[in-house]
């Protein structure tokens, strides 16, 4: 007993520990077969009384020891099981059952009923006669006005300048405390087609209002993760004057279609492929990631990309019918935080859907 | 199929693309009806009301100033009439005694003769209500009384059989605490049953009750809800409260006895364009710019019952007020019952066959009567094993 005690107190060598543990086990179990198992055999057959758990050991060092040993054992068993499974699969060859697909949040999503079917005539008619019809019929080409909230700080000003290099035919104007409702009729008179207002809070841009001009919808976004050009690692040289191509990913639902068309109508119709520049709006789980790259095809399948311009993440807060009028305007969709629908993991998506109440990543079943 | 089952639709919704949608909540189906076969944005539906003969006909007011007659029995548009005069879309549509009452945005209220034979383009009566009208509503108890209201156009109650002056003209409330004039924007009007009172909801998020019987021309009761313009309003079956909806999709039930907020209904994400309660059941139909028709249960418990995604922006709706929502499966079963009943006498069998032939030949007349006769004959047969 004393010997075991001395060893446990000075035990930093594993072998010693193991022996001490083995002796403890044997002592705890009683000297049943003590004659043959005298500390030489590995401590596999732990003859503990049933219902004993490692957490009941009061001594921290011994408890830790037991736990690490148990963990190692678990890991070994897991590896062994994996190897066995792999061998079985190889042995079966073609007849092996298909690998089970892991559960992810995206997998668990319930199908959104507002997802637009490409063959749907009603939606096609709706889109062909909506406010963007004149752009998509190539009757108007975009002219953008970029401005900020009043008294912008350095980051916002630089973001506006960089955005104006990314979006062709765009002009940056200083806000000078003017009301948007007064700016908009003047823009319409000067044939601007879109208005972008970057809202700033505490010296960083945090919001984006995108208003399509003659009488089009106004989208209000929350902006985060803004990275200006000098903050982007391994970036290429500044973008050229070529008109970029556009990629819109995952704008599948009806709401997504509206927003996707809004983004598409910011850029002119005819991308200049010589410039090899591309602006990407990637929607994933209701966050839209904006990136601007230059690409080069090294072979048929391999492409190299360089990230150029600014990068930011935006999330839609509301879509209002008509030009900017947050007080009296009618909203087509407003983001509402609904705390009572936790049941299903459905994302209001574009991947999105029209309307929708969400509760922090888990969306609801009441469609909206 | 869709046309045959059109009469069983529970809700009729008009859209911005000119399509009239009939929704059957039992079968969870929605059917599109268009006058010309293709949707047209120029025919955007701006007003809907029931026509003559119970709920068998719907009058559809379109943006191109035509009023179309739609038959729910047959599921087709039967005719249309052009109602010129004034500018803007229809803000109110009503019918009474074979006449059609229309009111447009610029304030021209006209009464047209609505017989099939006489579709002249001259109105029977024309009233100038004032510009900027947002709603014209007919009193269900007195069909010749209408009320109008709008932006900077105070509430006025008109008797179409009386003089050209309004019966009741509301007065604006007193100046507010800064001594500024309170602006007027009446968005929706309802007549309270059992009395002469009117309720309006305004674009400045106020709900007001007016009583023409009292000497006071100012509102008798005023409450506010929310921060956004209230766009639609409906009376609840109890008669003591109204449900209002605003441009953010918030629905609230407001008690008119005390001016208190009773509760809210969740679900809508876009501006509420149409609201209607069922006259006896605690059900509320709501539609809006988020392209979804929702049916909520107002009491015990308050919550969402049905939700139907209809792909276009919805402008207005009509909820069928009939009680037998669950009765309609009888209709398709009747033809199948006929061959199975061998215990019927020959006379009954012959009369049933005759009734079926009559139904096929006369689509429009006496269909309802035939059906009731059929059902009466079926009852002795259906109880026999």
UniProtKB/TrEMBL annotation, chain B:
GO terms for biological process: ribosomal large subunit biogenesis; RNA metabolic process. Keywords: Methylation, Nucleus, Phosphoprotein, Repeat, WD repeat. Residues 323-345, 360-385 are annotated as: Disordered. It holds the Pfam family WD40. InterPro entries: WD40/YVTN_repeat-like_dom_sf, WD40_repeat_dom_sf, WD40_rpt, WDR74/Nsa1. It is found in: Nucleus, Nucleolus. Residues 372-385 have a biased composition (Basic residues). GO terms for cellular component: nucleolus; preribosome, large subunit precursor. Regulatory protein of the MTREX-exosome complex involved in the synthesis of the 60S ribosomal subunit. Participates in an early cleavage of the pre-rRNA processing pathway in cooperation with NVL. Required for blastocyst formation, is necessary for RNA transcription, processing and/or stability during preimplantation development. Isoform 1 interacts (through WDR repeats) with NVL; the interaction is independent of RNA or pre-60S ribosome particles. Isoform 2 does not interact with NVL. Interacts with MTREX; the interaction dissociation in a late stage of rRNA synthesis is required for appropriate maturation of pre-60S particles and depends on the ATPase activity of NVL. This is WD repeat-containing protein 74. It comes from Colobus angolensis palliatus (Peters' Angolan colobus). The lineage of its organism: Eukaryota, Metazoa, Chordata, Craniata, Vertebrata.
């Amino acid at each position: 007993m004393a010997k075991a005690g001395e060893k446990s107190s000075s035990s930093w060598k594993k072998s010693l520990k193991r022996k001490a543990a083995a002796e403890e086990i044997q002592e705890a179990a009683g000297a049943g077969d003590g004659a043959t198992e005298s500390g030489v055999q590995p401590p596999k057959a732990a003859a503990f009384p049933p219902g004993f758990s490692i957490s009941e050991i009061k001594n921290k060092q011994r408890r830790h020891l037991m736990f690490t040993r148990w963990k190692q054992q678990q890991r070994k068993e897991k590896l062994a099981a994996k190897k066995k499974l792999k061998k079985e699969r190889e042995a079966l060859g073609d007849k092996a059952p298909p690998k089970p697909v892991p559960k992810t949040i995206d997998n668990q999503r319930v199908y959104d009923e507002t997802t637009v079917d490409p063959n749907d005539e009603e939606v096609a008619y709706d889109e062909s006669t909506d406010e963007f019809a004149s752009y998509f019929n190539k009757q108007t080409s975009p002219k953008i006005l970029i401005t900020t909230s009043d008294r912008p700080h350095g980051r916002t000003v630089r973001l506006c300048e960089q955005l104006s290099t990314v979006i062709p035919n765009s002009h940056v104007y200083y806000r000078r405390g003017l009301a948007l409702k007064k700016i908009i009729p003047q823009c319409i008179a000067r044939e601007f087609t879109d208005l972008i207002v970057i809202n700033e809070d505490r010296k960083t841009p945090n919001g984006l209002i995108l208003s399509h001009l003659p009488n089009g919808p106004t989208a209000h976004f929350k902006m985060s993760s803004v990275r200006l050009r000098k903050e982007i690692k391994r970036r290429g040289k500044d973008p050229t004057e070529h008109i970029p191509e556009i990629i819109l990913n995952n704008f599948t639902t009806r709401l997504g279609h509206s927003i996707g068309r809004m983004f598409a109508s910011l850029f002119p119709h005819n991308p200049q492929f010589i410039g090899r520049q591309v602006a990407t709006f990637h929607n994933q789980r209701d966050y839209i990631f904006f990136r601007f790259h230059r690409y080069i095809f090294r072979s048929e399948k391999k492409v190299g990309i360089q990230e150029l311009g600014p990068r930011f993440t935006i999330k839609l807060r509301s879509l209002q019918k008509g030009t900017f009028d947050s007080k009296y305007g009618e909203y087509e969709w407003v983001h509402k935080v609904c705390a009572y629908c936790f049941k299903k993991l459905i994302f209001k998506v574009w991947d999105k859907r029209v309307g929708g109440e969400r509760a922090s990543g888990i969306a609801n079943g009441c469609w909206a | 199929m869709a046309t045959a089952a059109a009469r069983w639709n529970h809700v009729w919704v008009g859209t911005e693309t000119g399509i009239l949608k009939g929704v059957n909540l039992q079968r969870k189906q929605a059917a599109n009806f268009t006058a010309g076969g293709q949707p047209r944005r120029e025919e955007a539906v701006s007003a809907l009301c029931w026509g003559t003969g119970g709920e068998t006909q719907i009058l559809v007011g379109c943006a191109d100033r035509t009023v179309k007659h739609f038959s729910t029995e047959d599921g087709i548009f039967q005719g249309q009439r052009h109602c010129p005069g004034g500018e803007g879309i229809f803000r109110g549509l009503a019918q009474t005694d074979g006449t059609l009452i229309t009111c447009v945005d610029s304030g021209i209220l006209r009464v047209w003769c609505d017989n099939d034979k006489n579709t002249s383009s001259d109105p029977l009566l024309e009233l100038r209500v004032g510009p900027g009208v947002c709603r014209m509503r007919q009193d269900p108890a007195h069909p010749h009384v209408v009320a109008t209201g709008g932006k900077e156009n105070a509430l006025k109650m008109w008797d179409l059989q009386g003089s050209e002056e309004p019966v009741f003209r509301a007065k604006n409330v007193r100046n507010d605490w800064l001594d500024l004039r309170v602006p007027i924007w009446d968005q929706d009007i309802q007549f309270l049953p059992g009395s002469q009172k009117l309720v309006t909801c305004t674009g400045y998020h106020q709900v007001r009750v007016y009583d023409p019987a009292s000497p006071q021309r100012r509102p008798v009761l005023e409450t506010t809800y929310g921060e956004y313009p209230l766009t639609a309003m409906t009376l609840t079956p109890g008669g003591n409260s109204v449900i209002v909806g605003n441009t953010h999709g918030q629905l609230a039930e407001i008690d008119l006895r005390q001016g208190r907020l009773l509760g809210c209904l969740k679900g809508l994400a876009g501006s509420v364009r149409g609201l209607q309660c069922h006259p006896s059941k605690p059900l509320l139909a709501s539609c809006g710019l988020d392209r979804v028709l929702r049916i909520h249960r107002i009491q015990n418990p308050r919550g969402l019952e049905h939700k139907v995604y209809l792909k276009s922006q919805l402008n207005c709706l009509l909820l069928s007020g009939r009680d037998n929502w669950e009765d309609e499966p009888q209709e398709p079963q009747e033809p199948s019952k006929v061959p199975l009943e061998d215990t019927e006498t020959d006379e009954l069998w012959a009369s049933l066959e005759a009734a079926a032939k009559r139904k096929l030949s006369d689509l429009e007349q006496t269909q309802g009567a035939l059906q009731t006769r059929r059902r009466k004959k079926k009852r002795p047969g259906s109880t026999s094993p």
